[in-house]
Write a structure and sequence with these properties.
By secondary structure, this protein is mostly helical. The chain is 85% helix and 0% strand. The two termini are 19 Å apart.
């Protein structure tokens, strides 16, 4: 395995950015149809973000356990981790797909989707839910590739997926020749198909290059201890991620009370927010792999040095990117919005983003490194408490009760991230993570 942090960061960053574009390119391209179409996709993708957490749980377990076993040079255990990860992902994906297909309407009623967006949201969700198996297994293979140090390959595949999705959107959203204009449904079909092709390419590359095989016979008899360890690693962190997405859905229900214009503004603000967020996420994921590897080798002092170094890098870059979006907010939002009052709100939101993303960079890095060390319960408990007690509660208080609108919602989320950043800094520097042992 490579040990250079930068060798991991830049391809992960580009890959994450490309993955982000798969869903956001749908919003951008349906924007030319109507505000209602954008809001339909935005509501559906918010729901999908929640269910994709199930795949994140498994991918996280694969990353942490395989990285530690690489540190111990135990290839048999690595093969078991890979095989179990793929199997569990497949089962979970099928179950989640069925649940979404049966309950899409009830979900959108619960989060108060405006009536004009309801049908489009249901259509988009049902189509993408039908292809969740491809997305889930794709995510598991990405985690596998990262533990092998093959970030450039997943980056290239993500680029191909985006190109295919964009071309598919062009034909299916707007129609071409004998192909009818499918609107929101066309965007969903293109997203599912492009991820399916991406998955096939990843499987082909893995089978050609890897000395470690995915072999389900290694799971007979069922390795209970390994399964329990995967759950111990994945479930708490997955619970935190699920809590975050669920709180975001509740916050979205508050935003839905503000009307279509604010739903659209939130959608594009989130899109630009994610561009700044991506670097911090790449740093945290790269750190998690390296810290897991070092802890597997027993080099905890070196792991601590890596975390301290990456914290500074992550905060500086995330804050800098957010500040650029603040400076040029009129220009970037101006591509999609021409209302001066909305552009003014967007600029205020992007200013809050500078503090929010700086704090979030600290959170992501420290939470992932705490997880890699086996300290999984503490960040989950703090995360859930703060997300609901600060972000969600204050989003209603500021945004709806005090009538601060979308800006109030953003301030609430900023306070949540800042509080957690302070708590996790104290936790890491206390050194309590050193007493944890996963393997």
């Amino acid at each position: 395995m490579k040990k250079s942090l930068f060798a991991y960061i830049w391809p992960i960053f580009i890959e994450l950015l490309l993955q982000l574009l798969v869903s956001n390119i749908d919003k951008i391209m349906v924007n030319s149809i109507s505000d209602t179409a954008v809001s339909s996709v935005a509501n559906a993708t918010t729901v999908l973000d929640v269910v994709v957490i199930a795949f994140t749980v498994i991918s996280l377990s694969i990353t942490i356990l395989a990285s530690q076993y690489f540190g111990r040079n135990d290839h048999i255990r690595i093969a078991q981790v890979y095989s179990m990860g793929i199997l569990i992902t497949g089962v979970v994906a099928v179950l989640v797909s069925l649940i979404l297909l049966l309950s899409a309407g009830m979900i959108f009623e619960a989060i108060r989707v405006p009536s004009e967006c309801y049908e489009g949201s249901v259509i988009y969700l049902n189509i993408v839910a039908g292809g969740l198996l491809f997305q889930g297994v794709y995510n598991a293979y990405v985690a596998i590739f990262r533990t092998q140090g093959w970030m450039k390959q997943t980056m290239a595949v993500s680029a191909g997926v985006n190109i295919l999705n964009t071309v598919g959107n062009f034909f299916l959203i707007y129609g071409f020749a004998f192909i009818p204009s499918l609107g929101v449904a066309g965007a969903a079909i293109s997203s599912v198909f492009s991820r399916f092709i991406g998955l096939l390419v990843l499987i082909y590359i893995f089978n050609r290059r890897s000395a470690i095989r995915i072999d389900f016979s290694l799971l007979r008899p069922w390795p209970n201890q390994l399964f329990k360890t995967m759950l111990y690693v994945g479930l708490p962190s997955g619970g935190e991620a699920l809590s975050y997405s669920a709180s975001q859905m509740v916050i979205l229900s508050f935003v839905n009370l503000l009307g279509n214009a604010m739903i659209k503004l939130r959608s594009f603000a989130n899109m630009f927010q994610m561009c700044a967020y991506m670097f911090g996420s790449a740093v945290s994921q790269a750190s998690q792999i390296i810290v897991g590897y070092l802890i597997g080798k027993g080099e905890k002092d070196q792991a601590d040095k890596e975390v301290r170094k990456t914290l500074i890098l992550s905060v500086v870059i995330s804050a800098g990117a957010s500040f650029l979006f603040y400076l040029f907010s009129d220009q970037v939002f101006g591509f999609f919005i021409d209302d001066p009052s909305l552009l003014a709100v967007a600029k205020q939101i992007m200013l809050v983003e500078v503090v929010l993303e700086s704090s979030r960079a600290v959170n992501m890095t420290l939470v992932r490194c705490l997880q890699a060390s086996g300290d999984t319960l503490y960040p989950t408990f703090i995360g859930i408490l703060s997300m609901w007690g600060v972000a969600t509660l204050l989003a209603y208080v500021f945004g709806i009760w005090l009538k601060m609108g979308l800006l109030g919602v953003w301030i609430a989320m900023c306070l949540d991230e800042t509080l957690r950043a302070i708590i996790f800094l104290i936790r890491w520097f206390s050194g309590k993570w050193r007493k944890r042992q996963l393997l």
